[in-house]
Amino acid sequence: MALTTFTSGQVLTAAQMNAVQANDYNQTVSTKTASYTLVAADKGTRVAMNSASATTITVNTSLFSAGDTLVLQNISTGVCTVTAGTATVSSAGSLAIPQNGSGILYFTSAGVSIFYPSAVTASAAGLVCVKAETAFSAVTSVTADSVFTSTYTNYLVKIIFNTSTANDGLMKFRVSGVATSTNYNRQRLVFNSTSVTTDQLNSQTSINLGSTNGAFEQSFDLNIYNPQIATATNIFSLNQNNFANYTTGNAGVIISANQSASTAFDGIEFSVATGTFTGKYAIYGYSKTV
Predict the structure, then answer these.
(1) pLDDT of the residue at 1
(2) SS3 string of the chain?
(3) Of residues 217, 253, 222, 218, the one with CA closest to residue 237
């Protein structure tokens, strides 16, 4: 309930006494669907924002006194920000109230307030999973469509697999469910305990990620840049390869590649030149915000 005032000599009724203590157990709530400026009558109440769009709660001076408090909360998806009007508002946390968040606004004087948030807007994750880890077994290819969008500029693909026979792992980009089989270019560096070798392949039908002997798993981290934009798409891959065994057969592979056509891709395909392969993969988008 809002603040109740009484006059000298007034006789309180039972209903008035009940109302006085009601606010301790059932606070008066006013719901706002648009940005709102606090008024004096909000003292001791709860102001609930209910808007899918971003809103503000503005705090002005000379409405409240030292020691006055009120609760601010947000019950919808639009972030609500506590904003200093003519009064000052400070906080050790965020002044942005996310959905299902709240906080107490406390006044140290008529024009100075402190906001104590119970929840703050979480920072965006650096990597966001856009394709959950997916297992595949004894298949000739795996595809993921509608994974590259304007939400992210750059992507990370992590894949582990082994093949049914000594074979090459291949990668293509896709558009609307159809693989593109032109304009792939690759430079590769392979290093192991005895040698360092390089090779280059241009104007290929796919990107050759490297050869495997079929008996041991290979691991790949592929960074993909601008796949969803109608421009050349660049790829940088770090591969861990086990050609003959997990000890002396261990080798590292670095691949710099591109798809040189000005095409906006939305999907990706992995395959082997012959036989089948078994493994799992996941795709992540690099966040654009902090």
Answers:
(1) 47
(2) CCCCCCCCCCCCCHHHHHHHHHCCCCCCEEEECCCEECCHHHCCCEEEECCCCCEEEEECCCCCCCCCEEEEEECCCCCEEEEECCCEEECCCCCEECCCCEEEEEEEECCEEEEEECCCCCCCCCEEEEEEEEEEEEECEEEECCCCCCCCCEEEEEEEEEECCCEEEEEEEEECCEECCCCEEEEEEEECCCCEEEEEEEEECCEEEEEECCCCCEEEEEEEECCCCCEEEEEEEEEEEECCCCCCCEEEEEEEEEEEEEECCCEEEEEECCCCEEEEEEEEEECCCC
(3) 222
**Where is average pLDDT lowest: 85-99, 110-124, 189-203, 233-247?**
110-124
CB 252 within 8 A of CB 192: yes
Closest Cα to residue 134, out of 147, 146, 149, 144?
144
List domains and CATH numbers for the chain: 14-117 (2.60.120), 127-286 (2.60.120)
Q: Which of 137, 148, 212 is nearest to 180 (CA)?
A: 148
Question: What confidence tier does 3 reach under pLDDT thresholds 50, 70, 90?
Answer: low
- Does residue 99 have a pLDDT over 70? yes
Residue 256 sits at φ, ψ, to 5 deg, of -110, 120
**pLDDT tens profile 52-91:** 888 999 999 999 999 999 999 999 988 899 999 999 999 9
How far, in Å, are 25, 34, 56, 190, 244 from residue 51 at the CA level? 26, 6, 10, 56, 61
